[in-house]
Structures are given as C-alpha cells and as structure tokens.
Design brief:
Blueprint: E1 5-9, H1 19-26, E2 34-38, H2 44-51, E3 56-60, H3 77-83, E4 87-90, H4 93-98, H5 103-115, E5 119-124, H6 128-132, H7 136-147, E6 157-161, H8 175-193, E7 201-205, H9 210-217, E8 224-227, H10 234-246
Parallel strand pairs: 1-2, 1-8, 2-3, 3-4, 4-5, 5-6, 6-7, 7-8
Helix pairs in contact: 1-2, 1-10, 5-7, 7-8, 9-10
This protein binds 1,3-dihydroxyacetonephosphate.
C-alpha cells in the first residue's frame, strides 16, 4: 500500500564531482522502492539532469515559506521544483538548531511546498535530554501537530523520525524504541487525518548504515529511511536500498 522510500540527505556535502556517486545510483537497476537524493542546492539542477527519467528522484533540503520576494539567500519551493526537485526536507533538527526554526515556520514551509507541487519530508525527533526525561512522545506529538499542515496526504507529506542524538553519532535507538515512536506517529496521523494517514510514509533517520538497515526496515510502521552520511557513497546507499527493497 505504501511504497517504501530510501532518501539520502547530503547536507552541506558535495561538489560537482560528487555527481559521479549519483551517476552510479542512477545507472543501477530500478529498485523495488523509491530512491531520493537531496543534494545541496548548488547541485539540484545538475543532479536532476544526471537522474533524468531514471529511478532516482531529487529533492531539496529546505525552502522558504514565501513564493518569492526579498529574502536574500533563500530558495522558494517553486524554484526547487523548477530546478528538478520533487521533494524537500523540512524542519530537519539541524535547521531547527542552526536557524531557530520552529513548528509554525516548518508548517508554513510545508504549505509552500505543497503549493509548488513538492512532497515535504517533515522531520521530528527528540534530543537526548528529552528522551532521558521521558518526554519523547510528548515532544514528537507536539512537533507533528505543529509542523504538519491540515489536509496532509501521502502525496504531499512524508514524516521522518530522527532522534537528534542518533544523527551522525553512530548510535541508534533500540528497535523497540523505533517501533514505539513509529506506531505513535501512525496513530497520531490517523486521529488527525483519518484514512489518508495510511498513505503517509514514515521514515527512520539517524545513523542508518548497511549493517543496521535490514533490522530497522523490519520494524513496524517503518516505511524507509532518511540517510545522512551513508548516502554520500553509492556503494553504501545502494546496500541500504537493497535492504529496503527486500524488506
Ligand atoms: P546520519 O545518517 O549521518 O546519522 O544523518 C541522519 C540525518 O540527519 C538525515 O537527515
């Protein structure tokens, strides 16, 4: 019912030479899951050219909430779409931390993404202190309610659960902890959106690598992954795609 999604977030990594990695992925046999690479903005148009009509989709890592105007250095959702993006990551914890983005701003960006025909990958996740305080589900529930626009569907929205303490750390939650959050996300979306919630894909992100991908993909309500470091090399990301295709 939900097609699985392996998404790579290159963050602030990569130059034109990195497109060789994308070429390797794009030349691979189509996987039994969707594949998405979100390179830095400087590479989106070139990446879309490399990906062509093949199996790899291209996305942005952020957009502005406004359609256009005097916002130096920002990029609109329509500009991402024009450059060849089909998706955009929004509310990543690094943007929440580095740029002070809050739930209302993320929601406004997600509305802008929808208006431009992009699928928003809305990120939520607790800090280690919040988990230690037993506040994980409360934090995630608040972020989900505040960041996801009304009327969300599987076409315009993907949710990524990324525990802040698992990002780039080599640490991951237990499979039971991932299941608890993903089941909570699914139940919360059903309460708010009814049957449409069942089309919304839920990705896990945070230190996903070839060695742990298969066990994470077997967890209830995990529909794929949002991968940072291990998406930079086609050899690693390809193994994650293979694990998801087999899940
Ligand atoms: P890592 O896979 O490098 O931990 O990054 C996860 C992430 O933040 C993806 O958006």
């Amino acid at each position: 019912m939900r097609r699985k999604l392996a998404a790579g977030n290159w963050k602030m990594n990569g130059t034109r030479a990195s497109l060789d990695e994308l070429r390797l992925l794009a030349g691979a046999h189509p996987a039994a899951c969707d594949m998405l690479i979100c390179p830095p903005a400087t590479l989106i148009a070139a990446a879309a050219g490399v990906a062509g009509a093949g199996p790899v989709l291209i996305g942005g890592q952020d957009c502005h909430a406004a359609a256009s105007g005097a916002h130096t250095g920002d990029i609109s959702a329509a500009q991402l779409a024009d450059a060849g993006a089909s998706h955009v990551i929004l509310g990543h914890s690094e943007r929440r931390a580095d740029h002070g983005e809050g739930d209302a701003q993320v929601r406004a960006k997600a509305e802008a993404a929808r208006a431009a025909g992009l699928t928003a990958i809305v990120c939520v996740g607790e800090t280690e202190a919040e988990r230690d305080a037993g506040a994980t589900l409360a934090v995630i529930g608040r972020q989900l309610a505040g960041s996801v626009p009304d009327g969300a569907t599987g076409t315009d929205t993907v949710i990524a659960y990324e525990p802040v303490w698992a990002i780039g750390s080599g640490r991951t939650p237990t499979l039971a902890q991932i299941a608890e959050v993903h089941d909570f996300l699914r139940a919360s979306l059903r309460t708010r959106f009814g049957a449409a919630a069942d089309g919304i894909r839920l990705l896990y992100g945070g230190s996903v690598k070839p060695a742990n991908a298969a066990e994470i993909f077997a967890v209830s309500n995990v529909d794929g992954a949002l991968v940072g470091g291990a998406s930079l090399r086609a050899a690693d990301f390809g193994q994650i795609v293979a694990a998801l295709s087999a899940a």
